[in-house]
Amino acid sequence: MQQIPLVDLKRQYLTIRDEIDLVIKKVIESGYFILGNEVSSLEREVAEYIGVKHAIGVASGTDALHLALLACGIGEGDEVITTPFTFIATAEAISYCGAKPIFVDIDINSYNIDPAKIE
User: Fold this and answer.
1) Residues near 30 by Cβ (< 8 Å), separated by ≥ 6?
2) At 101, phi and psi to the nearest 5?
3) Tell me: the pLDDT tens digits for 32-80?
4) Which residue from 9, 21, 39, 102 has the least number of CB within 10 angstroms?
5) Residues 18 and 44 in one domain
Protein backbone atom coordinates (compact mmCIF):
# COMPACT_ATOMS: atom_id res chain seq x y z
CA MET A 1 0.00 0.00 0.00
CA GLN A 2 1.32 3.44 -0.92
CA GLN A 3 1.83 5.85 1.97
CA ILE A 4 0.31 9.28 1.36
CA PRO A 5 1.47 11.95 3.81
CA LEU A 6 -1.20 14.08 5.45
CA VAL A 7 0.76 17.22 4.60
CA ASP A 8 3.72 17.12 2.23
CA LEU A 9 5.56 20.27 3.28
CA LYS A 10 8.64 19.42 1.21
CA ARG A 11 6.58 19.13 -1.96
CA GLN A 12 4.83 22.43 -1.21
CA TYR A 13 8.19 24.10 -0.56
CA LEU A 14 9.74 22.83 -3.79
CA THR A 15 7.07 24.58 -5.87
CA ILE A 16 8.02 28.00 -4.43
CA ARG A 17 11.60 27.37 -3.28
CA ASP A 18 13.25 30.36 -4.98
CA GLU A 19 10.69 32.84 -3.66
CA ILE A 20 10.77 31.41 -0.13
CA ASP A 21 14.57 31.24 0.03
CA LEU A 22 14.87 34.86 -1.12
CA VAL A 23 12.46 36.14 1.54
CA ILE A 24 14.04 34.02 4.31
CA LYS A 25 17.47 35.40 3.38
CA LYS A 26 16.07 38.94 3.45
CA VAL A 27 14.54 38.42 6.92
CA ILE A 28 17.72 36.87 8.34
CA GLU A 29 19.88 39.66 6.93
CA SER A 30 17.55 42.30 8.40
CA GLY A 31 17.82 40.81 11.90
CA TYR A 32 14.08 41.34 12.47
CA PHE A 33 12.41 37.98 12.95
CA ILE A 34 9.40 39.48 14.74
CA LEU A 35 7.55 42.66 13.75
CA GLY A 36 9.94 43.42 10.88
CA ASN A 37 9.25 44.96 7.49
CA GLU A 38 8.40 41.62 5.90
CA VAL A 39 5.72 40.91 8.51
CA SER A 40 4.27 44.41 8.18
CA SER A 41 4.24 44.07 4.40
CA LEU A 42 2.52 40.67 4.58
CA GLU A 43 -0.11 42.01 6.99
CA ARG A 44 -0.86 44.97 4.68
CA GLU A 45 -1.07 42.74 1.60
CA VAL A 46 -3.36 40.21 3.30
CA ALA A 47 -5.63 42.98 4.63
CA GLU A 48 -5.87 44.54 1.18
CA TYR A 49 -6.46 41.17 -0.49
CA ILE A 50 -9.38 40.25 1.80
CA GLY A 51 -10.74 43.79 1.98
CA VAL A 52 -10.31 44.61 5.66
CA LYS A 53 -8.52 47.38 7.56
CA HIS A 54 -6.13 45.13 9.47
CA ALA A 55 -4.59 41.67 9.35
CA ILE A 56 -2.37 40.20 12.06
CA GLY A 57 0.52 37.85 11.42
CA VAL A 58 0.82 35.16 14.10
CA ALA A 59 3.34 32.46 14.90
CA SER A 60 1.13 29.46 14.19
CA GLY A 61 -2.25 28.16 13.17
CA THR A 62 -2.96 27.50 16.84
CA ASP A 63 -2.41 31.19 17.61
CA ALA A 64 -4.67 32.14 14.69
CA LEU A 65 -7.47 29.86 15.90
CA HIS A 66 -7.09 31.13 19.47
CA LEU A 67 -7.35 34.78 18.41
CA ALA A 68 -10.32 34.04 16.14
CA LEU A 69 -12.17 32.34 18.99
CA LEU A 70 -11.44 35.23 21.35
CA ALA A 71 -12.61 37.71 18.70
CA CYS A 72 -15.88 35.77 18.52
CA GLY A 73 -16.32 36.10 22.27
CA ILE A 74 -15.66 32.44 23.08
CA GLY A 75 -14.68 31.99 26.71
CA GLU A 76 -15.06 30.14 30.00
CA GLY A 77 -17.98 27.73 30.02
CA ASP A 78 -18.71 27.92 26.28
CA GLU A 79 -18.93 24.82 24.11
CA VAL A 80 -17.47 24.84 20.61
CA ILE A 81 -18.48 22.22 18.07
CA THR A 82 -15.62 20.85 15.99
CA THR A 83 -14.68 17.71 14.17
CA PRO A 84 -12.34 15.07 15.58
CA PHE A 85 -10.95 14.82 12.00
CA THR A 86 -8.46 17.66 12.61
CA PHE A 87 -5.11 18.53 14.14
CA ILE A 88 -4.90 18.75 17.94
CA ALA A 89 -4.46 22.53 17.59
CA THR A 90 -8.20 22.92 17.02
CA ALA A 91 -9.11 21.46 20.41
CA GLU A 92 -6.14 23.20 22.06
CA ALA A 93 -7.24 26.64 20.86
CA ILE A 94 -10.76 26.02 22.14
CA SER A 95 -9.39 24.88 25.52
CA TYR A 96 -7.03 27.90 25.74
CA CYS A 97 -10.16 30.09 25.75
CA GLY A 98 -11.61 28.14 28.67
CA ALA A 99 -14.22 26.58 26.41
CA LYS A 100 -14.99 22.90 25.91
CA PRO A 101 -14.50 21.24 22.51
CA ILE A 102 -17.52 19.17 21.48
CA PHE A 103 -16.62 16.62 18.83
CA VAL A 104 -19.16 15.87 16.12
CA ASP A 105 -18.37 13.30 13.45
CA ILE A 106 -18.09 14.16 9.78
CA ASP A 107 -20.39 13.46 6.88
CA ILE A 108 -18.70 10.73 4.85
CA ASN A 109 -19.57 12.45 1.55
CA SER A 110 -18.40 15.98 2.32
CA TYR A 111 -15.85 15.42 5.12
CA ASN A 112 -17.46 18.39 6.90
CA ILE A 113 -19.24 18.23 10.25
CA ASP A 114 -22.47 16.29 9.83
CA PRO A 115 -25.26 18.72 10.87
CA ALA A 116 -27.57 15.78 11.58
CA LYS A 117 -25.25 14.70 14.40
CA ILE A 118 -25.28 18.03 16.23
CA GLU A 119 -27.36 17.88 19.41
Assistant:
1) 36, 37, 38
2) -75, 135
3) 888 888 889 999 999 999 999 999 999 999 999 999 999 999 999 999 9
4) 9
5) yes
Instruction: Tell me: do 65 and 45 sit in the same domain.
Output: no
Q: Give the containing element (helix H, strand E) for 61.
A: helix 61-71
Task: Compute the average pLDDT of residues 83-92.
Answer: 91
Query: Is it the case that residue 5 has pLDDT exceeding 80?
Result: no
Query: pTM to 2 decimals?
Result: 0.71
Residue 25 burial (C-beta neighbours within 10 Å; 0-12, 13-18, 19+):
exposed
Distance in angstroms (rounded) separating the CA atoms of residues 65 and 42: 19
Phi/psi at 8 (5° precision) = -100, 85
Name the residue among 52, 46, 90 with its Cα closest to residue 69.
90
Is the residue at 4 inside a domain?
no
Q: Which domain holds residue 45?
A: 9-50
108 and 75 co-located in one domain: yes
Measure Cα distances from 92 to 31, 49, 74 in Å. Answer: 31, 29, 13
